[in-house]
Amino acid sequence: MIDRTRGFYDEALETMPAAKRAQAQREMLRATVLHAYEHAPATRKKMDDAGVRPGDVKEPSDLRRIPVTRKADLKYIQKGEPPFGGLAAVPPRAMRRIYVSPGPTFDPEGRDATHWRWEKPFVAAGFREGDIVQNTFMYHFSPAGLMFDEALQRIGCTVIPAGVGNTELQAQVMKELSVTGYVGTPSFLMTILEKAKEMGYTSGDGLSLQVGLVTGEMFPESLRARFRDEFGVEARQCYGTADVGSLGYECHVAKGMHVPDEIFLELIDPATGDPVPPGSIGEVVVTLPNRTYPLVRFATGDLSILSDDPCPCGRTSARLLKLVGRVDQVTKIKGMFVHPEQVTQLASKVAEVSSAQFVVTRTDHDDHMEMRIVLKDPAAASDALADRIVEAARGITRLRGEVRFIAANEVEEPEKKIIDKRKWD
Amino acid sequence: MIDRTRGFYDEALETMPAAKRAQAQREMLRATVLHAYEHAPATRKKMDDAGVRPGDVKEPSDLRRIPVTRKADLKYIQKGEPPFGGLAAVPPRAMRRIYVSPGPTFDPEGRDATHWRWEKPFVAAGFREGDIVQNTFMYHFSPAGLMFDEALQRIGCTVIPAGVGNTELQAQVMKELSVTGYVGTPSFLMTILEKAKEMGYTSGDGLSLQVGLVTGEMFPESLRARFRDEFGVEARQCYGTADVGSLGYECHVAKGMHVPDEIFLELIDPATGDPVPPGSIGEVVVTLPNRTYPLVRFATGDLSILSDDPCPCGRTSARLLKLVGRVDQVTKIKGMFVHPEQVTQLASKVAEVSSAQFVVTRTDHDDHMEMRIVLKDPAAASDALADRIVEAARGITRLRGEVRFIAANEVEEPEKKIIDKRKWD
Predict the structure, then answer these.
(1) Interface of B with A in 105-124 (CB under 8 A)
(2) In the 3-class helix/strand/coil scheme, how is B195-252 assigned residue by residue?
(3) Apex B387 CA angle, B382 and B388, nearest 5
(4) Is B80 near chain A, with CB under 8 Å?
(5) Which residue pairs, CB below 8 angstroms and at least 24 apart, start in B409-417?
(6) Do B99 and A172 make contact, defined as CB atoms within 8 angstroms?
(7) What's the mean per-residue pLDDT of chain B?
(8) Do the Cβ atoms of A99 and B161 come within 8 Å?
(9) Cβ under 8 Å to B: A residues 133-162
């Protein structure tokens, strides 16, 4: 039986003591800022405009003097100076591959094997040398397929470059090639496993699948449990983007995603740019020590929460507890950020609530938050329940709102968790 | 201006004198047969059954004692002993990737960088370090995309893994990333170039495309001329399969496809298994010195013609003049093989002929070949023309047939060049 829990891809790096990591991160930051300043004209300009010289960045806190570069602006930055908007440190002809994300936005891949850094996530998820892995990410235009493919090879796995779709063939291949590992979205894994079951193949009875690394969409614990209990598959999730590669990965403990040591990650308040404390929601901002694409304070637009608590797996990094949404879905109410995820949290914290939606209005410079609540049983509506909901919402948002019980068919714009009706002059 | 004509990927190998190549091929054959015998159980069995020991194969002519393994049978061979039917020399877990061709048939890829050998074809086609290449072959399940992708990187190109489809995005990317090279089918290249033109991009006016390597379907000279004259693109073709990789590639002279030095290629009479002389049609049979998949006499099912004439490019290998069809389309008439390509040849050799179709019948153990001829001008029908057609057909097939002039709407089963109406007990 293979031990899929113990083991690291780079134990020294992953288990570094805090002081050593702080020192390594300091050195990495200095080198990255210098490299980007010298080779990426857009970063040089951003720093010059802010009056920051590379030598000024000695400590992580100095980094805050450099403004962020927003992922949402990449499209315009690239259009301004094609193809990479001055953010790449080498010309296109010196790159290994160039990808095209929807937009289109161009994503460079350098010639270094370490460009995307997915080896650690695979090992942490239990993938081992000799695994035969079905890679169901797309290889065309998007980098997802190839970045996982090549990392798998580097840890000694055999890859089936399957791409997405073709469920029946996927199930057949999973069986006939005795596939032991899967990488792709969690929902597609469930689709394949259900198709395989329909075709008569289940774990131990045709299927050999043991581990999965999933990403690209929300991965609820209930789905993880089904993979484990119904199909004998241990699935771990990871987080990354087409711009920067790996940004976090679960270990066998599966309580949050370890932040890779080779990058510098901040969680910042999207409004002030200040770092948020552990446990608070902030935007993921990355400084990427990459020879080809040395990004300095790249704001991903993803919102997450960091934890510094020690992890029993032995990895000493901080962990991203979960992804809670996108910056552009955040609403500021009475000076506080409220995020759709928090509305969803409310529904999960009060048992009687089926779904919730916040509607924000403004009278005389005063914000008003109405919490429209659909109950599982409409007859349960009561002032006492409304009070409990108000309290739960305060715990989550630190804001006081007003409850209004509505029927399911009264939900306006059901795709929105927060409806902002305020008018601004 | 880049010189895209001169230059080799491996000059010493590609320009070897005949005696040196013969010696190299002899050594390669001996080593391959020994490696396959020792590590691929199906090859060992095939040789044992034929009473051939590895040491018996000293000269290429000795190889003929070993029966061919037919590509068309792979599906059954693999089903008999999954997944590789005993033809692979290493277990699946030691492979780099595993692909799935329709069937499904599994195709192994070894961990050696030389597994598919597409570097020489790219250099011969004029691809150079620094080219930015749009790879429009599919990366999913089929090996085509990845085998070209990785060869391009090894010669120093930058790859855009585009896959097939998405014509408008392909044209946009070709322009915005200043793509200089294309690999894919010739028809898809024409589709992209026409779409680009429609969008206002042409060679020198938005597009930078200069070279193309095309394969996967017939590549008529008229299409090559259009790429060159209308779009400023020099396109070269190559030939290979998902089982064995590169089997032939055009140089800048573009008169036939050079046979790679690293494999042993025979053209055989599909009936007798004897080698056919240069200029005659035979089936391509490959012996592949691959550590992972050391095939011995793998019959591809493709029919081609070899030429030994020297090529002005300096490469000294034999060339496959063209691919003329598939073995399974061959019909045996009066003991002679007749192939659809020969029927097409007839139409091209007699100017008055628009199209031809052969219909074979049998009376008293005697085959009868009727040549149904559609003329460009039906009024041209005459006994003298019929005689010329009979003579032309004899030159091509060595068979005497009988001409019947028909109208275009009388053609039966137009997709067939040969209709076999013989009954066999």
Answers:
(1) 106, 111
(2) HHHHCCCEECEEECCCEEEECCCCCCHHHHHHHHHHHCCEEEEEEEECCCEEEEECCC
(3) 100
(4) no
(5) B410/B372, B411/B355, B411/B357, B411/B372, B411/B374, B412/B357, B412/B359, B414/B357, B416/B340, B416/B357, B417/B329, B417/B340, B417/B343, B417/B344, B417/B356, B417/B357, B417/B358
(6) no
(7) 93
(8) yes
(9) 138-141, 145-146, 149, 153, 158-162
- By Cβ distance, the residue of B94, B139, B177 closest to A83 is B177
Domain positions in chain A are 331-420
Give me the interface pTM, i.e. the ipTM.
Answer: 0.86
pLDDT band at B62 (very low <50, low <70, confident <90, very high): very high
Facing B83 at nearest CB: one of A104, A161, A177 = A177
Cross-chain residue pair B141–A161, CB shorter than 8 Å? yes
CATH homologous superfamily of B331-420 equals ANL, C-terminal domain (3.30.300.30)
Exposure of A145 by Cβ count < 10 A (0-12 exposed, 13-18 middle, 19+ buried)?
buried
Name B160's bridge partners.
Answer: B134
Q: Percent helix, strand, coil in chain A (nearest 5)?
A: 35, 25, 40
Residue type, B228: R
Tens of pLDDT, residue by residue over A265-318, are 999 998 788 899 999 989 999 999 999 999 999 999 999 999 999 999 999 999
Cβ distance B294 to B43 under 8 Å?
yes
Is A104 within 8 Å of B169 when comparing Cβ atoms?
Answer: yes
Q: Which residues contact A132 (CB under 8 A, 6 or more apart)?
A: A157, A158, A160, A177, A178, A179, A180, A181, B92, B93, B98
Q: What are the CA-CA distances from residue B298 to residues A85, B72, B245, B290 (Å)?
A: 51, 10, 12, 13
Name the minimum distance, in Å, from the CA of B98 to any CA of chain A.
5
- Interchain contact B84–A (C-beta under 8 A): no
Mark yes or no for CB contact A169/B140 under 8 Å: no
- pLDDT tens for B78-135 read 999 999 999 999 999 999 999 998 878 999 999 998 899 999 999 999 999 999 999 9
Q: Which amino acid is at B239?
A: Y
Q: A141 and B158: CB-CB below 8 Å? A: no
Nearest chain A Cα distance for residue B207, angstroms: 14
Mention every residue, 6+ apart, whose C-beta is less than 8 A from residue B151: B116, B117, B118, B119, B121, B122
Task: Inform me whether the C-beta atom of residue A329 falls under 8 Å from chain B C-beta atoms.
Answer: no
Interval A168-207: pLDDT, tens: 999 999 999 999 999 999 999 999 999 999 999 998 889 9
Is the backbone of residue B250 left (phi > 0), alpha (psi -120 to 50) or beta? beta
Chain A closest-CA separation from residue B223 CA (Å): 27
